Amino acid sequence: MPHPKAYIRPDELDSLRAIPLADALDLIGIDHKADHSYKPRLHHESERWHVSDGGHVIELIVTESRWFDTRNGKGGCGAIDLLMHLRSWSFREAVERLRH
To answer: Is the distance from CB of 18 to CB of 31 less than 8 angstroms?
Structure first.
């Protein structure tokens, strides 16, 4: 039988992916600030965030749960993907951090 933490129920996975991105960053202590001077071109609800982690700043374009790192040219969807990208964590590591 798998270890209880090794199995992730589909409903739990959905709820972890649905955590608002700002809340996920707050949860693991990554500083982020919205750039209020940003004027979105495609989606009026898009925001530009400056994320500071480990001494370097990353610029993210965020639209609901979707995000795009403008400097690295990588994007994803949801809190799990974002933490994997920012911290170079595995899927399991990101899930375990969001569970706490």
So the answer is: no
SS3 content of the chain, % helix, strand, coil (to 5): 35, 25, 40
9 inside domain:
no
Burial 23-61 (b: 16+ CB within 10 A, else e): ebbeebebebeeeeeeeeeeeeebbbbebeeeeeebebb
Q: Please give the tally of structural domains in the chain.
A: 1
Distance CA(13)–CA(74), nearest Å, equals 22
User: Containing domain of residue 49, as a range?
Assistant: 30-99
- Per-residue pLDDT of 59-85, as tens digits, reads 999 999 999 999 999 999 999 999 999
The DSSP letter of residue 16 is: H
Q: How confident is the model at residue 42 (pLDDT cuts 50, 70, 90)?
A: confident
Of all residues in the chain, the percent with pLDDT exceeding 70 is 94
